């Protein structure tokens, strides 16, 4: 009797395996970090072989903790850090180069060159995305142009591309021995190479970027009853980019429902149903999910590059504290940020600005400011960036949000969540299972094999753990937000060619 569904959650800083029961409860979890590699300023890489080793370790670790075997699993889903780009040899299983992480800015010149003909929105009508260093397509182009032998290997059909979902699934389902070279619509929509309407790779854009179609994985549904392949006889049949997975995990199945995930970055997604909603306000039009033969569901997304990563930076680069959770202890020692703002544009600004020439700034410094104020300003930066995205989302969709569903590691920070509610002027709601990314991947896989049979069944699993409500006055909210917008302007156009 298969009683559980497993999910590989391959994130930016760590990989974990989570095992869920039918009511969405966690019965086992194991998590391991992997190295962050910074070869040059603005470059961020991962060792894909290390990530695959960690993936195998966490699957075994979670199953050991839960006291189960592969035979107890009905299905496995995969969710992943999106846009992070890998090219490897399908004959040897070895990467030609480290994975280039979504935060990496080395493709700035490639994006600027592509924008000379048609501007930053050159491909936006087809793919829903602006030309930006964030996405996979320009990263593939960089690897083809800068790593010896890859162009020739691609021409021979040996070099294949995948985001981390594709890499993990390929290895899980056999690797060099017939591993499935697949991705799903949500991940494919982050490459800048997939047409939103046809859900297929776009030959014109591939030609412009010089990317052979033979390198690309097959695009499959996010929940696929036809199954991608098998791991230890368990169907691997769910695949969602991490933010779309969290949207499914939050059961945002109706148009207008939205969630915000607080992780390395911050990502707000609003379900727009089967309708493609263009964004004049700097949001991304993206795929939300596709379950089997049902029509694809689309979304608007606001992507923020640095939120939890800012707390890690205070921990690792400045030695402010030993553990990320301690940021709240320092932030609570002061009633406010003392008039300073911290704009963490370490990788430029993402939504709604898409300014790759921006860099991080702290403004408003006086002799009065201490470590506690900086910690508080770092937390507030997450809330302010979320407010900017929500304003753009309401403008583009015409939907006024009445509450924000939240998930991810930072939602256990009461100081941040209260400030988030205050600056948005809406309730902020955390579910019982706040690690909804893995849960969404489990739902996709479980739905494919009939472990869950309806969306309503999944919705019944969703329960509120805590709600924060606004306590801030309108004048104070307006004043603080005005200061933030001024600070953001100070971060722009810092880099010059």
């Amino acid at each position: 009797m298969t009683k559980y569904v497993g999910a590989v959650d391959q994130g930016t800083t760590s990989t974990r395996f989570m095992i869920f029961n039918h009511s969405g409860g966690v019965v086992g979890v194991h998590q391991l970090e992997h190295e962050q590699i910074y070869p040059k300023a603005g470059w961020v890489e991962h060792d894909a072989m290390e990530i695959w080793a960690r993936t195998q370790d966490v699957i075994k670790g979670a199953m050991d903790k839960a006291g189960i075997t592969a035979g107890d699993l009905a299905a496995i889903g995969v969710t992943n850090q999106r846009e992070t780009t890998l090219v490897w040899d399908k004959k040897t299983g070895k990467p030609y180069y480290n994975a280039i992480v979504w935060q990496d800015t080395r493709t700035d010149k490639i994006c600027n060159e592509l924008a000379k003909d048609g501007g930053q929105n050159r491909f936006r009508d087809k793919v829903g995305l602006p030309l930006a260093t964030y996405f996979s397509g320009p990263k593939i182009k960089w690897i083809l142009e800068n790593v010896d032998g890859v162009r020739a290997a691609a021409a021979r059909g040996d070099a294949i591309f995948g985001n981390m979902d594709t890499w993990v699934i390929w290895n899980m389902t056999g690797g060099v021995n017939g591993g499935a070279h697949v991705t799903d619509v949500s991940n494919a929509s982050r490459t800048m190479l997939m047409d939103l309407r046809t859900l297929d790779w776009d030959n014109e854009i591939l030609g412009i970027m010089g990317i052979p179609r033979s390198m690309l994985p097959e695009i499959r549904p996010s929940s696929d009853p036809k199954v991608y392949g098998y791991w230890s006889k368990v169907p691997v049949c769910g695949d969602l980019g991490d933010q779309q997975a969290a949207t499914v995990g939050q059961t945002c199945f109706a148009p207008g429902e939205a969630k915000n995930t607080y992780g390395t970055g911050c990502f707000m997604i609003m379900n727009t149903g089967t309708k493609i909603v263009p964004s004049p306000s700097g949001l991304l039009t993206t795929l939300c999910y596709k379950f089997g033969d049902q029509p694809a569901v689309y979304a608007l997304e606001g992507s923020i590059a640095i939120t939890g990563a800012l707390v890690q930076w205070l921990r690792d680069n400045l030695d402010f504290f030993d553990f990320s959770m301690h940021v709240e202890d320092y932030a609570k020692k002061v009633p406010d940020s003392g008039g300073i703002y911290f704009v963490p544009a370490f990788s430029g600004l993402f939504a709604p600005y898409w300014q790759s020439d921006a860099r991080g700034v702290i403004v408003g410094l006086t002799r009065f400011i201490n470590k506690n104020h900086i910690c508080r300003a770092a937390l507030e930066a997450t809330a302010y960036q979320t407010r900017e995205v929500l304003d753009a989302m309401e403008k583009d969709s015409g939907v006024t949000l009445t509450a924000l569903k939240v998930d991810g590691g930072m939602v256990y920070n009461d100081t941040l969540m209260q400030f988030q509610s205050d600056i948005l002027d809406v309730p902020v709601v955390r579910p019982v299972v706040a690690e909804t990314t893995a849960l969404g991947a489990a739902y996709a896989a479980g739905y494919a094999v009939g472990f869950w049979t309806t969306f309503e069944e999944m919705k019944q699993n969703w329960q509120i753990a805590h709600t924060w409500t606004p306590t801030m006055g309108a004048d104070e909210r307006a004043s603080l937000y005005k200061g933030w917008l001024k600070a953001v302007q100070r971060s722009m156009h810092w880099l010059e060619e």
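The mean pLDDT is 94. The first strand starts at residue 4 and ends at 10.
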